[in-house]
Amino acid sequence: MMGRGEAGNDSVEIKVHPRQANTPAGSPPHPSQFQNQSVFKNWVPWLVPLFVVANVAVFIAVMYVNDCPSNSGSCVAPSLGRFSFQPLKENPLLGPSSSTLEKMGALDVNRVVHKHQSWRLISCIWLHAGVFHVLANMLSLLFIGIRLEQEFGFLRVGLVYVISGFGGSLLSALFIQTGISVGASGALFGLLGGMLSELITNWTIYANKFAALLTLLCIIAVNLAVGLLPHVDNFAHIGGFLSGFFLGFVFLIRPQFKWINQKTCPPGYIAPPAQSKHQTYQYVLWVISLIVLIIGFTLGLVALFRGVNVNNNCSWCHYLSCVPSSLWSCKSQQVYCQSMELGSQLKLTCLSNGKSNMYDLSNNDSSKVQMLCAQLCS
């Protein structure tokens, strides 16, 4: 994505000379004796493609569980059977109902705090609201993740992805405590944050440094700006980005050049004296970032499980996720219905638009009632 110059290629010219009895001490070696040795291992990416397959498989499983024809009066693409989508008024992204997403592990702060379902902070990053949602996220994951895994390997990139997704979910839960949240956006922004810190900590190996930095900053700014629109959880983006930024200083560091490992020399050759692989500033950033991550996650979890709503202590923070304008509103889109049992019928009345309807009461659980309420209020 961002090119490296001669100082940053995976192949570095190493000037070594053989032990020859007839070579005078201190005389320079002949140019033909120069050797090229590989410095960095080029990993074969497999974890990021596996993440993509897993996300798509989970989405298919969610649509199977959703079973629109059995739970809704009208579906989009009914020829798909139980894989058909909810009505567009209910889900314009071509996907399942909110009640199905909640059942499958979407982030619900009430369930996390009061029902001890902390696993939702992780499970929600593998769920998507619809076809458009999963396609956008997976294309972005391939575009960003493949390059990082090639350079740093599956373990480090996998840790950045999952921990950043957790960080995005945590910040989202602290600010948005009504409704549900799904999607890998926080984890994706974590990879963007990791790319930025990787560029900073490995600054010396990049060619066109400022052009690379400006390009990456523009990509990040555009994506965060999109998060200022309604119905987009920008707190998950910000939390994931900050987590990934600090994780990049921990996991995505490279040895700096002007050093050579003795093991790279062919038999009979002597390498120049090895210098330090990592610079002092890299160690300093590593320690600071690790401390910030530990403190940040600890304080965030304590605040979450104590039921703290950060918006109560920050009157302007809600603008980080949505900026109101004449074209849209940032008010919550939660729906509430009044229910009344009339014999074997259930009467629901949407409190936001006043619409009412009667439904068969048989085999109605709370999740199905919530889905019917969402349809009535849409």
Mean pLDDT across the residues is 79
The CATH superfamily of the largest domain bears the name: Rhomboid-like
Order of helices and strands: EEEHHHHHHHHHHEHEEEH
Largest sheet: 3 strands, antiparallel
Can you describe this structure?
- It is a single chain.
- The chain has 378 residues and is mainly α.
- The protein folds into two domains: 46-257 and 275-321, Rhomboid-like (Rhomboid-like fold), CATH 1.20.1540.10; 337-377, no CATH class.
- Helices cover 46% and strands 8% of the residues.
- The protein contains twelve helices and seven strands.
- The protein has helices at 47-66, 68-71, 98-103, 109-114, 120-123, 131-152, 154-175, 185-201, 209-226, 234-251, 280-305, 366-377; strands spanning 11-14, 17-18, 35-38, 269-270, 337-342, 345-350, 356-360.
- The strands form three sheets. A three-stranded antiparallel beta sheet has the order 5-6-7.
- α6 (131-152) runs parallel beside α8.
- The longest helix is centred in the last third of the chain and has 26 residues, at 280-305.
- It is elongated and about 75 Å long.
- The model is unreliable at 5-21, 29-38 and 258-262 (pLDDT under 50).
Layout of secondary structure:
Blueprint: E1 11-14, E2 17-18, E3 35-38, H1 47-66, H2 68-71, H3 98-103, H4 109-114, H5 120-123, H6 131-152, H7 154-175, H8 185-201, H9 209-226, H10 234-251, E4 269-270, H11 280-305, E5 337-342, E6 345-350, E7 356-360, H12 366-377
Antiparallel strand pairs: 1-3, 2-4, 5-6, 6-7
